Amino acid sequence: MARINDDSVDLFKDQLGRLGESHFLILYWCAQGEDKGIKYNITNCFDDLKHVGITRTKQTAVSMIEALWSLCFIDIREERNRKNIYITKHGARALQQLVVMGGFSVKSSSFLEGNQA
Amino acid sequence: MKVIGIGGAGGKIAAKMDDSAILVNVSRIELEKVEGGGERIIAPVQSTLGQFRGSRKDPEIGHDAYLTIRRRLQDIVVGGMVFSSTGGGTGNGITTGILQGISSIDDELGNQGSTIPVQDRTFFCLILPYDGMESAEYVNNSIDFMTGPLADVIDKGCTGNIVLFSNKMKFTEKIAEEQYNEMIVNSLKVFMAIPDKNENMKLLESHIDHEDFTAFIAKPFFNHFNYFDYDPSKSFGNQLKANSNPLLLDAEEPIEAMFLLEVPSGQDHTIFYDIVKYFVDCKIPPVYSVVENPDLSKPFVTVSRLYSRKPYELLDDFNKKNLELADAKVQKSLEQHVVLEKLEVNFDKEAKRAGKQKGVGDDVLATLKRIGKL
Question: Per the CB < 8 Å rule, is A96 touching B374?
């Protein structure tokens, strides 16, 4: 059992090592959206990634989101014809580690800030 | 190129552009009012009221009407030029349906953004309302249109050029609708004449044939074109700026460009090098050609610049509600892929402490705790 736990930690560390700024921001934005009670969907996420200059194509944004889903860091739920993104508990732990390691800085989401205004 | 006019405003302009334009409306009466044009298609709606009175600024009625003629219309717009207003119910609703149809064709072809063949791309001419002088419903319909279906096809890159005409000048200069429509058509004809001029006039440098032109207008970007008498003794950049097309929304920083320079007989045509240099300095080597036009007394240049912006930023002129969002400029980059910086994973306690010292980090952790994920 101990062996499994050690392996799990190693796996988690390796997973974190492969996350980039885009993944960090997606996790952060969907947590922020949930905190504000605002549904945050794939299109909003693409707009935000485009706005901060990470990508110009929706396919790239979708592939980043799918990577996080494959790692069980986010859930994607189809609600009212929108694919909304929710951070999972694993995703929250990953975001926590990324924050304490200080590898990336937070950038604001135009969508969430616009809604707030 | 087939010309299609959707709704009242789109139909009137399309009919002026081409005698054989196909006109689409939900109202037979509205269709009959339009002079000129060719085939007329009525998109029937459930409500009898809608049949006689148009869509009454309600895009839902326009969209329902689109569904009744979807297959026919989707075939017609392939490789065509579509005129529509974004504010009215019919133009907005039916054009929304057309854009969604194009988007779904792209999905079927593999959603790669460039799968619709060049010659099948649709060239859109959209007429935007002028805030403050036109109904709030027109403005709101335009916002919904540009942030919804238009944003989707731009993201996917499955349309041709999109030309954004603004009603601003019509209201500020108090121009009659018919005259303004005439101005729009005449302006567009100058741009669309580029390949014909290349074919019919003596070529002096390079060449823009119909294939080159079709490839250029098949690119999924906003097109700002303008034209003016070119004075080679003055800066081209200043002249370009001073002669911006007043019928269109202002151009953003271009990502592609094309120009046609017409020079009078016997005049030195090497003045085109200054224009090429201007665009090269902007890091956008242009598509261009130089022809001899014996009817001219001064050099005349037609320029087209393609640019890309988030649709909601294009509503800056009249979208007061989204003003804050509109201020945020989109970083334009021709690079499709971004190299992600490598994250150095470090579980060292000192690193944790340093990270926690950042107030932002604490905010994120507090957020995660508030939503019960930690």
Answer: yes
